[in-house]
Amino acid sequence: MQQKNDKKVIRSWAFFDWANSAYNLVITSTIFPAYYTAITSDNDNNTIDYITFFGRKFVNSALYSYAMAFAFLVIAIISPILSSIADTRGNKKIFMQMFTYIGAFACCGLFFFKLETLEMSVVFFVLAAIGFWGSLVFYNSYLPEIATIDQQDKVSAKGYTFGYIGSVILQLICFVFVFKPEWFGITDPSLPMRLSFFMVGLWWIGFAQIPFKNLPKGSPNFKPEKQNVMTSGFKELQKVWRQVKQAAYLKRFLFSFFFYSMGVQTVMLMATIFAEKELHMSTSKLIATILLLQIVAIPGAMLMSYLSTKKFGNVNVLIGVVLIWIGCCVAAYFVQTEYQFYALSAVVGLIMGGIQSLSRSTYSKFLPQESPDHTSFFSFYDIAEKVALVIGMFSFGYIEEFTGSMRNSTLALALFFVLGLLFLLLLKRVEPKTVAVVEE
Questions:
Q1: What top-level class would CATH report for the domain 7-220+232-427?
Q2: Maximum alpha-carbon separation in the chain
Q3: Residue 10 Rama label (left phi>0; alpha psi -120 to 50; beta)
Q4: pLDDT by residue (tens digit) across 167-223?
Q5: CA-to-CA distance for 273 and 406, rounded, in angstroms?
Q6: How many angstroms separate the CA atoms of 6 and 102, rounded?
Q7: What's the gap between Cα 346 and its chain centre?
Q8: At what angle do helices 149-179 and 7-22 cross, to 10 degrees?
Q9: Element (H or E) spanning 386, and its range?
């Protein structure tokens, strides 16, 4: 069995965040959404930007939302199947590698993204999302395997901190090409951004070799019976749900996590496009703002870890953070100027890493720590998040198409956070207990 709290293993685990967070910053938050909006827009602020995708007409930002929602739906379907195989055979690192290479090579493929290659490029965009989010269930499931309960908040925060630092470094490298293309003799205005997508893929593959080398391959549970690969994963999820239902604390936490996740990730994925379409901010200002948001997120994740461990406990800190998220969504509806957006981005940056890190470690703490089925437990957690994201992203795009304004979509996200808050408050009424293992 893997010895826990090994510094080298924990550092290697955190380097996976360093490797893949470049995708999260460059592709989902800054350069790609800015580039996507620029090449699919008619540059007239008084008209709605429509685009044709495989013969059907969409609002450009709605297509972006639907593409992400589809990627999350795919993950929600295939994740339980692969998680069951990983737990049975103890080979979750192989699946981490598989999704990493799918995502990274898809990012490299985005180098060819121009308006005339829209359909192919959106497919690459979806594959990159599947690669990133698909790898996380296996990555997250290592947390209870490599760290003891008292260290999991700290280790989880360390992963996010590594991720923010690594992604900012690559973002700065990309900035050199985006803002100073003349230094390299680049005359094609689209090339610096497309080159950034290619560099994300190389960065992701390169630094992922550190965790691939040093993380354990996983602990098999040695189930002797033969099972149908296509159904055993969902049976495993049913088993996990039976165990979760017996722990009222964890069940209520998962309901809360489900609802506030609809808001958290949707805000992070749509912030750049919102600012560009609603506030008409320039690409350079948007990218700089999101970069500052990432930098603020580093002390934010560390602060939340400190407050939860030393002061108030996980649930109380989560309640406070969700309240701030509700305020941010309402504020977004009324934002009119660049400086208001800068202030709102600073607040979002401070809380976004904290809520993700605390959610992961809170869930991890109440799992059976010596269970060989951590991947299945985290697959359940991952599916809850992905289904939430399908609903969040689809709702955001649909409300915009139906009402003609992204501002109305932000109010819907506030309602999701309110539901998450209600379940967090209910959580305080039950005693926290670790999930008991249910034997088959």
A1: mainly alpha
A2: 65
A3: alpha
A4: 889 988 988 888 888 998 888 888 999 999 999 999 999 999 999 998 887 655 445
A5: 9
A6: 29
A7: 19
A8: 40
A9: helix 374-403
Domain ranges of the chain: 7-220+232-427
Q: What 3-state class would DSSP assign to 59?
A: strand
Residue located via tokens 């019976």 = 225
The CA-CA-CA angle for residues 32, 395, 287, to 5°, reads 25
Question: Of 155, 199, 186, nearest to 15 (Cα)?
Answer: 155
Which amino acid, 183?
W
Note whether 435 and 247 are within 8 A (CB).
yes
Three-class SS state of 50? strand
Ordered alpha helix ranges (H), 110-190: 118-140, 143-146, 149-179
In this predicted model, what pLDDT tens digit does every residue of 81-112 receive, in sequence order? Answer: 777 676 666 677 888 899 999 999 999 999 99
Q: Which two tokens stand for residue 280?
A: 């008409």
Element (H, E) at 212: helix 191-214
Burial (CB < 10 A; 0-12, 13-18, 19+), residue 181, is middle
Q: Indicate the SS3 state at residue 13.
A: helix
Query: Residue 58 belongs to what H/E stretch?
Result: strand 56-59
Q: Evaluate whether 351 touches 223 at the Cβ level (below 8 Å).
A: no
Q: What is the pLDDT of residues 115-163, one digit of tens each?
A: 889 999 999 999 999 999 888 878 887 877 888 877 877 888 788 788 8
Torsional sign, CA 301, 307, 309, 313: negative
Q: What is the pLDDT of residues 218-263, one digit of tens each?
A: 655 445 445 555 566 667 667 777 777 777 777 788 888 889 888 8
- Residue pair 437/368 in contact (Cβ under 8 Å)? The answer is yes
pLDDT of 145 reads: 81
User: Three-state SS for 56?
Assistant: strand
**How distant is the alpha carbon of residue 24 from its chain centre?**
7
What is the per-residue pLDDT across 16-50, written as a single tens digit (0 to 9) for each? 999 998 898 888 877 888 888 888 887 666 677 78
Whether the CB-CB separation of 294 and 164 falls below 8 Å is answered with: yes
Q: For the chain, give percent helix, strand, coil, nearest 5.
A: 80, 0, 20
Higher confidence at residue 286 or residue 337? 337
Output 174 or 267, whichever has higher pLDDT: 174
